C-alpha cells in the first residue's frame, strides 16, 4: 500500500481483510477428537483476500528481513506469497524426512502429539529471516522454527501467524513481544 493510502484503497483493504477472516473454515474433531482445525484453503482461493492477508501478515516487518521462512505445510503458502511480494528469498522448514540434506532438526510437542522440523543451511550466517506460519495454537511449531533458525546462525527478524487460537497458551509459550498475528479466535 502507498505511504499515504488512498481512502478507497484503505476501504478495499479493510473489506478484503474482513472477508479473509470470514473465509477461514472451522472443522471440529480434525485431525483428532477435540481439535478444531482452521482450514485456510477458502481464503487462499480468494485473490483479494489472500493479498490483504499477506500484506497484513508482513506489514510490521517490512524492510527488516531478507528471507521468509514458512513452516510446513500451510506456512509455505503464506511465506511464498510474502517472499514474492517483497522480493525476498524463501526458506522452507519441513517435517522430518522430507529434505535430502537437513542441517538442523528440532523436535517439539503439538496439542495432539509430537513432531520434528528440519531445514537446510543454504543462507549466509546472520541472514535476517521472517518466520511465518498459519496458526498459533500451543506455540510448539513456532518455537521449534525459531530455535532451528537460531541454530543455523540466522537472525530472526520477526515471527508472524495468520490466525491465533487464544486460550491455548501459545503466545505465552512463544514468549516474543513482537509476535504478530492477523486474526484471533
UniProtKB/TrEMBL annotation:
GO cellular component: cytoplasm
Catalytically driven reaction(s): AMP + diphosphate = 5-phospho-alpha-D-ribose 1-diphosphate + adenine
Domain of life: Bacteria
CDD domains: PRTases_typeI
EC number: 2.4.2.7
Family annotation (InterPro entries): Ade_phspho_trans, PRTase-like, PRTase_dom, UPRTase/APRTase
One MF annotation (Gene Ontology) recorded for this entry: AMP binding
Known role: Catalyzes a salvage reaction resulting in the formation of AMP, that is energically less costly than de novo synthesis.
Assembly: Homodimer.
This protein's name: Adenine phosphoribosyltransferase
Protein's organism: Leucobacter tardus
The gene coding this protein: apt
Amino acid at each position: 500500500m502507498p505511504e499515504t493510502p488512498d481512502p478507497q484503497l484503505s476501504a478495499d483493504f479493510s473489506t478484503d481483510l474482513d472477508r479473509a477472516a470470514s473465509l477461514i473454515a472451522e472443522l471440529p474433531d480434525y485431525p483428532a477428537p477435540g481439535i478444531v482445525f482452521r482450514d485456510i484453503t477458502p481464503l487462499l482461493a480468494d485473490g483479494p483476500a489472500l493479498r490483504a492477508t499477506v500484506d497484513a501478515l508482513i506489514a510490521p516487518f517490512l524492510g527488516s528481513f531478507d528471507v521468509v521462512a514458512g513452516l510446513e505445510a500451510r506456512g509455505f503458502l503464506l511465506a511464498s506469497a510474502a517472499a514474492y511480494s517483497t522480493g525476498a528469498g524463501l526458506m522452507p522448514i519441513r517435517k522430518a524426512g522430507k529434505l535430502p540434506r537437513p542441517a538442523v532438526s528440532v523436535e517439539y510437542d503439538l496439542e495432539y502429539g509430537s513432531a520434528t522440523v528440519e531445514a537446510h543451511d543454504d543462507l549466509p550466517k546472520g541472514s535476517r529471516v521472517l518466520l511465518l506460519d498459519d496458526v498459533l495454537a500451543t506455540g510448539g511449531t513456532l518455537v521449534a522454527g525459531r530455535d532451528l533458525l537460531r541454530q543455523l546462525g540466522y537472525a530472526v527478524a520477526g515471527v508472524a501467524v495468520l490466525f491465533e487460537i487464544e486460550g491455548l497458551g501459545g503466545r505465552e509459550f512463544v514468549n516474543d513481544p513482537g509476535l504478530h498475528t492477523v486474526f484471533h479466535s
